[in-house]
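We both want to read discrete structure tokens more fluently, so let's practise on a single case. Would you supply a protein for us yourself, any chain you care to pick? Would you write everything just below, so we can both look at the same thing?
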Amino acid sequence: MTDTYARTTASTWRNWAGNVTTRPVRTVSPASVDELAETLRRAREDGLKVKPAGTGHSFTAAAATDGVLIRPDLLTGIREIDRTAMTVTVEAGTPLKRLNTALAREGLSLTNMGDIMDQTVAGATSTGTHGTGRDSASISAQIRAVEMVTADGTVLRCSADENPDVFAVARLGLGALGVITAITFAVEPVFLLTAREEPMTFDRVTADFDRLLTENEHFEFYWFPHTGNCNTKRNNRSAGPAAPPGKVSGWIDDELLSNGIFQVACSLGRAVPATIPSIAKLSSRALSARTYTDIPYKVFTSPRRVRFMEMEYALPREAAVEALREVKAMVDRSPLRISFPVEVRTAPADDIALSTASGRESAYIAVHLYRGTPHQAYFTAVERIMTAHAGRPHWGKIHTRDADYLAGVYPRFGEFTAVRDRLDPDRLFGNDYLRRVLGD
């Protein structure tokens, strides 16, 4: 074994939001599966824990370690496109942006995706990244096979046909089962989506919520606290032709308003909280209705340059409107000043043990605050509402739930922990976050 693989360093690691900082003994970037297995062997010999970390878009300490931090930046690229099976196998460290653009060049696409493309494929799927969809689920639900290196150095491959008990839990594994080295996704021929963005009142959206979900393949909306205003987005497949946003108008909506001016507004609101309700009223009226048609990743995703803190809960779909109304009532009667919109999305039920949509049709309510703004009071109040509706916290976003609570809202929780006990009995991949949410 040479040191050609191991860009080995000892430096501080921070997540995207800046709320998690850790200083591992060493940070290693293996360039192959064999080199990763050797890294794990050395860590075991040295008595060090191991955690893989992608781009740090999780707000939790899921990737934090004072042992060995695995960076996947040399494990990137597409291994294989199988046009018969309609799958793509991709290295774990590949950013979603690179995967999406590479697939588009091949005339292919994922069926659904979240709105951020910066994450690695392993990081996104391991924490349950999702978009919104009536019929199509999270990125993890589009996985057809997983390859990982387990604690004893075994290269384990799992799918519906190979090690199916592991596959049932590994599509969303929290980094607790092994270090993912490659993922095989289902793909389909690239298609067009027509996006229709339209302002709508809070009362109308909540009254028509079920109809809007039923009539659209992908529906989501944002409610602006301190107002009765929302912005809705409906994405549906289209026969075309493509009609992307104009360069100038697209820049105004996606960069100037959604990033540039919003950054200034958030900074002002953080410095002078009393201005936030007035800013919210202006912001909620700034985005006008628009319609455009493009390939999926150009419709589903958007740039997010304003940094924030976030908490998100998945609720039974039928509880979403009531819970959102409770959040609005709480904000209206409190002294809180909330500068970020509240995001609402949906997902169909899936069959992944720790998916937030496992076994139930779900709606997601996500709350955000500008980075540097005290968030505890707001997030605590919202979390109290979410847990009263049997909410499941997003694994990569701020929450205070522990294993006892989570075992009560995930019927297959024990199935996951049993596989973990078998694959990592000595908790090589453990850390404080996993100890809290999975037990030890």
Q: What stands out?
A: The mean pLDDT is 93. Residues 247-271 form the longest helix (25 residues).
